[in-house]
Amino acid sequence: QVQLVESGGRSVQAGGSLRLSCLFSGRAFSTYGMAWFRQAPGKEREIVAASSESGHLAYYVDFVKGRFTVSRDIDKKTMYLQMNSLKPEDTGVYYCAADPRGGYWSGSYYPKNKVDYDYWGQGTQVTVSS
User: Fold this and answer.
1) Residue 100, exposed/middle/buried by CB under 10 A (0-12, 13-18, 19+)?
2) pLDDT single digits (tens) 25-61
3) How far apart are CA 98 and CA 106, in angstroms?
4) Rounded Cα–Cα distance for residues 84 and 28 (Å)
């Protein structure tokens, strides 16, 4: 099976930057669709960004577009989320998720709901102060 471990979360001032890492333990990392979710206090977990099979395509929700970048290092079996121009509303627990059916993602489609992902990390806290 697959295990995911996030790291890199911390407290940062608004306008600052962070890079989160998700280490994938298992086989065939490149065949999984991967995603970053976040959950703010009192809110539902929501998708932030996703990375298609082999990391060929990146997807972003509107509220992070232009500020966040998702990438993969296949050799290190690690997915990253570079977060720039952070805002207080970015505060939350960030989760790494993996979809073993990543090969079925289309060029324009990617799963956006948490139920679409089979594997999850424990989360890493990001706090952005104003």
Assistant:
1) middle
2) 999 999 999 999 999 999 999 999 999 998 889 999 9
3) 16
4) 30
HSE value, Cβ hemisphere, 13 Å, CA-based, for 21: 10
* Residue 63 φ then ψ, to 5°: -75, -5
Taking residues 83-98, what's their average pLDDT?
98
SS3 91: coil
Nearest of 111, 123, 3 to residue 51 by alpha carbon: 111
62-76 confidence digits (pLDDT tens): 999 999 999 999 999
Token pair in block for residue 92: 């939350």
Nearest-angstrom CA–CA distance, 23 and 82:
15
Q: Which residues of 25-36 are buried (b: 16+ CB within 10 A; e: fewer)?
A: eeeebeebbbbb
Report d(CA 94, CA 6) in Å as an integer. Answer: 8
Q: For residue 34, what is the enclosing H or E element? A: strand 33-39
- Chain-centre distance for alpha carbon 5: 11
Question: From residue 99, how far is each of 52, 94, 120 by CA, in Å?
Answer: 10, 17, 9
